[in-house]
Each structure stands twice: as structure tokens, then as C-alpha cells.
Amino acid sequence: MTDTGFEKAPARNRRRFPGISSRAYEHPADRSALVALRKLSGFDTVFKTLSGLLPERSLRLLFLSDSVRVGETQFPHLHGMLRDACYILDLETVPQMYVRQDPTPNAMCIGLDEPIIVVTTGLVELLDEEEMRAVVGHEVGHALSGHSVYRTILLFLTGLALKVAWIPLGNVAIMALVTALREWFRKSELSADRAGLLVGQDLNASMRGLMKIAGGNHLHEMNVDAFLAQADEYEKSGDLRDSVLKILNVLPRTHPFTTVRAAELKKWSQHRDYQRIMDGHYPRREEDKDTSVTDSFRQSASHYADTVRTSKDPLMKLVGDIAGGAGDLGGKLRDRFTGAGAGSGSGTGTAGGGTDGKGATGPEQG
Predict the structure, then answer these.
(1) Which one from 26, 56, 139, 189 is the annotated catalytic residue?
(2) Cα–Cα distance measured from residue 121 to residue 131, given in angstroms and rounded to the nearest whole number
(3) Is the distance from CB of 119 to CB of 97 less than 8 angstroms?
(4) How far is residue 248 from each of residues 155, 161, 241, 310, measured CA to CA in Å?
(5) Residue 250 — very low, low, confident or very high, per pLDDT cuts 50/70/90?
(6) pTM for the full model?
(7) How far is CA 89 from the centre of its chain?
(8) Are the beta carbons of 151 and 89 closer than 8 angstroms?
């Protein structure tokens, strides 16, 4: 691995995507939200005002003073990966990256004016080079999409909610916004996972990295197919009670569950959209200004409709039945909620229902 600049290709022969728009890899729900926000009149003014309230300068000083800044003489292998990722996704300004002492594997991209990438020592020590390359590509994808702005605001609002919890209705209003932002945040993670695959161009490495984030540095004890089977079992297991528990489990999280991320990335890697990008056919940044908000929302709605139609989750299947005009709705609702008539698949699956406190607070890669 060499510390390359833009005048040279990355160390390994990987495809490069000149002028690629983030729309090429963004999840439909993420993309529609971003397009709408970018088109919103006065949005930039609001954020310039907010920048004076958010502790961004404080965060920059904190990382500068109490973390290690990645560069040619400090963590040079990470510096090379970062420059390679920016080269592949054609991001002209290389973001600053810091390594922070923290045993919890994590990474994030924040900042209003300029994105900052922060990775923890726990993540650096956990992943091998190709796995780490996918993570760096993931964070550079956040930077290219402009996610860092909204993620910084979410961090601010989450902290603000704690400070105003004593004010009647004040916390309710803020938490409603936080909940909506978290739903977008989770979709943005799926987008960034795709960017990581475009940078690393090694699906196995991306899968290994997600497995390690879920199960630690015991790769010899884990299996990709079995890990993906967990995601399938999680989606289709149980009855409506488990579906409700899945929703309650995911609401406090900023990230989708790790098995779900792996399954979503595997599915995207097999989709024609991914192959078209790899063949050099993708939307360009120069076309972003002409993007239609209506078209973006239509694509998002179509995606959710497809999700409902193909989902194995009991609640989603019920929604699909209702949309299809299924008869005996009351009986179906009763049977789905109690598990009656579910056949061999009945029972209360533990994949989505059990909570031991770890499901909502486990390691999450930003």
C-alpha cells in the first residue's frame, strides 16, 4: 500500500469513477430527502445560522488536541487509504481524519463547513487492510453525499433533547425531529455501505468487516452465509408482536442492525445498478442541479412499495395483504398477531423480539 496522490492510481488496480454523483449509490429514501433539502429555499441560510450554535469548532479543537491526526507521518497506511478512496470517488478535497483512543469499534463523519472523519482504535485494531478500506470508503461516501452536515445537527439535537427534558412539550418536539432524522440516518448508512463497496471493490471484505463489528475478531468462528441467514431469519421470524418489537428496537438507533446492513449490501451488489456503475454508467455531479425532487420521491415511494411487496416480515406481509384487498381482515390481523395458523414458522422468534440492552447500544460504524 503506497501513500498516493491524485496524480497516481491507487495501490491496487481498482476502477475509478470520475465526476460520480452521490446519487449513484444513495439509498432511495436517503436520496429523496437530500434532494429535497438541497432544493429547499433558504436552507443554506438556516444552516449558516445554526453553525454559530453548534459546537463544531469545539469538536475540531478537541480532536486536534486529544486525538492523532492521520497523515504522511502518522497512521500513513490510513492516510493512503483515505487518499485512494477520495481518488476513486473523485472527491477533490481530502477530509481530515483522526484516530481516537476508544476500544469500541466505531467511525463517523461530521462537520458543517468541512467534513471530519474520526475512527477509533478499536476499529483500527479489529479490521484488516481491505476491511478497513471499505470503512474509509464508507466515510468518504458520507462526505461526498453531504451527510456530515445533517449528522452533526442530529448529534446537537440529541444533546439538546437531554438538556430541555424538564421543559413541558419541549423535549417532545425535539425528539420527534430526532426520530425522523434517525430514520434518515439509518438509510444514509446503507448509502455509505454502498460507497464503501465502490471504493474497496471487494464484497467479501465488506461482509467480513460487518461480521467483525457484530461478533468481534473471531473470523475463523464465523461464516458469511450463516451471518446472512440470520438477517433472513430476523426478517421473517415470529408474528406481529415480533414485528412491533423490531420497530421498537430500531427506533433509538442511528444505524440499521448489522445483519440487515450485510443483507442489504449483498442485495445491492447483485443489482444491475451496481453493475452499471462498475461499467462506467452512472449519474454525474454536473447533472445534480437538474435533479427532480418529484422523481426522487417517486423512486423512494417505489422502493418502499417493492419492500412491502417482497418483505417476509409478518407486519409488512399484512400491509401487502391490505393493499391487495385481502378479505377477512379482522381474522388475518388476529391470526398474525397471535401467531395462529402460521404453520411451521409460528412461535415467537427471538431474533427480533428479545432485548438484553445490547441491541440498541452495540458498536455502530458511522
Answers:
(1) 139
(2) 15
(3) yes
(4) 21, 19, 11, 22
(5) low
(6) 0.70
(7) 17
(8) no
- pLDDT of 37 over the 80 cut: no
What residue spans of the chain are helical by DSSP H? 28-39, 43-51, 56-66, 76-88, 121-126, 129-145, 147-163, 170-200, 203-215, 224-236, 240-250, 258-269, 272-278, 293-310, 314-323, 329-338, 350-353
The three-class DSSP label of residue 18 is: coil
Alpha carbon distance 171, 159 (integer Å): 11
The question of whether 139 is a catalytic residue gets the answer yes
What length is written for the chain? 366
Strand 116-120 and strand 96-100: the pairing is parallel
Task: Decide: 238 and 353 in contact? Cβ < 8 Å.
Answer: yes
Residue of 86, 63, 67 whose CA lies nearest to 6:
86
Q: Give the DSSP per-residue string, 76-104.
A: HHHHHHHHHHHHHTT-SSPPEEEEE--SS
**Sole residue written with cell 448508512:** 189
Q: How confident is the model at residue 287 (pLDDT cuts 50, 70, 90)?
A: confident
Grid-cell match 423535549, residue found: 171
- In this structure, are residues 105 and 363 in contact, taking their beta carbons and an 8 Å threshold? yes
Cell numbers at 82, concatenated: 483515505
For Cα atoms 195, 89, 78, give the angle at the middle one, nearest 5 degrees.
80
